Amino acid sequence: MKQAQLYWFLAASIIVAAGLSPLRAQTPGSSPSTPASAGITLTGIVECGKGYTSHELYDMKITLIEVVRGGAAWKRIREASPSNKAAEPGFEYLLAHVKFEYYARGTPGLCIHQLSPQQFSACSSDGQDYQIADVVMPKPELRKDMKSGETVEGWIAFSVSQQDKAPLMTYSADQGGAIVHGGAKWFLLR
Known about the structure:
By secondary structure, the chain is an alpha+beta fold. Helices cover 18% and strands 38% of the residues. The longest helix has 24 residues, at 2-25. The protein is globular, with a radius of gyration of 20 Å. The N and C termini lie far apart (58 Å). 28% of the residues are buried.
């Protein structure tokens, strides 16, 4: 009798786990089909270290605070530097104001994460890549050598199609020599 109960318990557990797996895939920010909106904080784990040295795990939090687009974005970019040029025909500037937090999971917690705008990229919902805008960024720019316990806020500028009403932004630490566990983080830029 106990063996039959154990069998049914295991079968029920497998069915429940299978039913929950689509929910995990639907987590906001986990994929381009389920991007997080402004104001939502996404969490993840960054593995920091170089070469054969011991790699440490760090918790990170990323929040898209604000999105500024079109004429308002161009005004801020032009104020950042008179040398900035207008966006190419058919494109417009989009500014993303991002907050990034970084915390060691253990000791010694001495690894520095080199956060830069190049770790963020933008694309259309159909996968067309957008470039980080080649402009002097409004202050503060999202760039910092992050130590454990630090938080930084700053701007990133992209050039996006004027026709694209729902561009996406993604974060991946790979550009800074680190690794993000669980994949890239996705945000809806509107």
